Structure formats: structure tokens, C-alpha cells
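tool_call: predict_structure(chain=1)
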Amino acid sequence: MIDDQSSLRTPRAAAIAGILFALLLAAALALVQAAAPRDAGATGVWLTDPTSRRLVALALHLVPFAGIAFLWFIGVVRCERRGHDSSLPQVARGEPGMCRAGRRRPHVRAPLQHG
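tool_result:
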């Protein structure tokens, strides 16, 4: 059984992940746009300029974090939608560990095997 607190956190987590993804990707694209020259004829000059190179490097370092936020967003949305959509394959409708991570459940210890 899912408690009310967990059901309120899941949409909030999706919203936070979606906003974080949008901000990080927009920042990365804006940094590349700022580093690129206005003149289309100066193709290689902007890569030799130290300031432009730093902006592009920062943008490239932001992209993986945007990807992680996007995957988090998709995971939360998928877990939420799974209960409402019967068209998902049988394997996806199973109880994957990621979707149960936020739910409260009793801790079960596995017995130790000796020998």
C-alpha cells in the first residue's frame, strides 16, 4: 500500500527533475551559442579563443547532468503512469526496484549461509 506522503512526493520529484533538465540543457545551449561567432565565415577561430573554449567546455560538462535529470524525470513519469496504463508489456508492469524505491516497506534480512 502506498501512503499519501509517497504519492505526493512522486509528482514533485518529476517536476523537479523536469525543471532541472530544462534549465541545465538551456544553459548548455546558451553557453555554446555565446561561444560561437556571429560571423559564419570564422569557423575555426572561436575554438582557438581561450574564453570561447572555456564556455564550450563548461557546456559540455553540463550535458551529462542534464541527461541524468532527464532519465530521472522519465523514470518517475513511467512509475506514475504504470498504474494507469494497461498497454505496457508484462515485464514493465512488474514491480521493478526503481519504482519501489520511495515506498516504505519492512526491511527483510537474508539468512547467512555458512559453509
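agent: Helices lie at 4-35, 45-48, 50-82, 90-93, 97-100. Proceeding to next step.
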